[in-house]
Design brief:
The structure is a single chain. The protein has one domain: Beta Barrel (Porin). Helix content is 6%, strand content 61%. The protein has one helix at 2-20, and strands spanning 37-48, 62-75, 79-90, 94-106, 110-124, 132-145, 151-164, 171-182, 190-202, 209-222, 225-238, 251-266, 269-282, 289-303.
């Protein structure tokens, strides 16, 4: 009922905004300017096996409502800044807010994005095989180079610090990656592939690991619709020196498939959907599991000027 009420308000507001918006010919000068935009998104999400219960164990399926806001402000012709906020209202774990921002450069040959965000009361499952709430700091940067317009060569790095009430769960995670993407027929078909690695250092050495990953992805944009599908495989080795610790010698392989779609409904109002499935296999007996997540909702873009800028180059 909460999601239905929010969607009804968004649809009514979008229709009113469309009627009040001046025609393009009333402001010809705006056509030459980059737009300041505000994107509001509301989604209903379902998490199947949220706690990553192992095969044969009882599984927990929960739902949650997400409210997201992304405000982008251009600085000059190629630079822009953005602020992002999110409130995820879990069915069983309460509310989890997120706040952050960053700067972006999108030139003819060079692209850069740097951001920092804080996540609060976020339930995390991946440490100590338990569900615990964390306060997290995430900082990231990515750089891309286009030797020719259709081709993008990019690299990224991310730092994450998770702080829990139980200090033995605290951890730092470092990630680096690189990928290549090619545009076919404009943005109608954009295949990409990439490689990455990560390392987690925890207060509890039994949760330390090193990780390698690879992915392939296909994106498509046409008639304002956006489609994406990605397959990713991660191989994780737990770097535990003590053979008496539970994760000693453990090796996991995690395969994930994700699909997303954004379909325009009316002017700046669009329907959005996302699906993810992950299968994990482990050399540790009885530690295999499968999870799924599905999300559906609405996205509404408010442009302060005409012609919003191209969406950011993202991995």
């Amino acid at each position: 009922m909460r999601l239905i009420a929010i969607i009804a308000i968004m649809c009514t507001s979008a229709a009113a905004a469309a009627e009040d918006k001046p025609a393009a010919q009333d402001k010809p000068a705006a056509q030459d300017k980059r737009a300041a935009t505000n994107d509001v998104r509301v989604t209903q999400r379902v998490f199947d096996n949220f706690t990553q219960a192992y095969d044969g164990e009882p599984k927990m399926t929960i739902s949650g409502t997400g409210l997201e806001d992304l405000m982008t402000m251009p600085f000059g012709t190629t630079w822009s800044g953005y602020l992002r906020g999110e409130l995820l209202m879990y069915e069983r774990f309460g509310n989890s807010p997120l706040a952050g921002g960053g700067v972006r450069h999108d030139g003819r040959h060079h692209m850069f994005d740097g951001s920092v965000q804080g996540e609060f009361k976020r339930p995390i499952v991946d440490i100590d095989d338990t569900v615990s709430e964390a306060t997290s700091l995430v900082a990231g940067a990515q750089y891309g180079f286009r030797p020719v317009r259709p081709l993008l060569l990019a690299a990224s790095s991310t730092y994450r610090k998770d702080t829990f009430d139980r200090e033995t769960l605290n951890s730092h995670t470092y990630e680096i990656g690189s990928w290549v993407r090619y545009q076919v027929a404009g943005r109608k078909f954009m295949p990409s592939l990439g490689l990455g690695s990560a390392r987690r250092d925890s207060v509890n050495p039994g949760d330390d690991y090193s990780q390698r990953e690879g992915f392939v992805r296909a994106q498509s944009e046409f008639s304002r619709a956006r489609l994406s599908v990605r397959y990713r495989q991660r191989e994780r080795d737990y770097t535990v020196p003590d053979p008496r610790v539970h994760n000693f010698g453990r090796h996991d392989v995690r395969r994930q498939l994700t699909m997303s779609a954004e379909i325009p409904i009316y002017k700046d109002l669009a329907a959005v959907a996302y699906y993810a499935q992950e299968r994990s296999r482990s050399t540790r007996v009885g530690r295999d599991f499968r999870t799924q997540m599905f999300s559906i909702g609405l996205s509404w873009r408010v442009s302060w000027l005409q012609q919003p800028p191209e969406p950011p180059e993202v991995r």
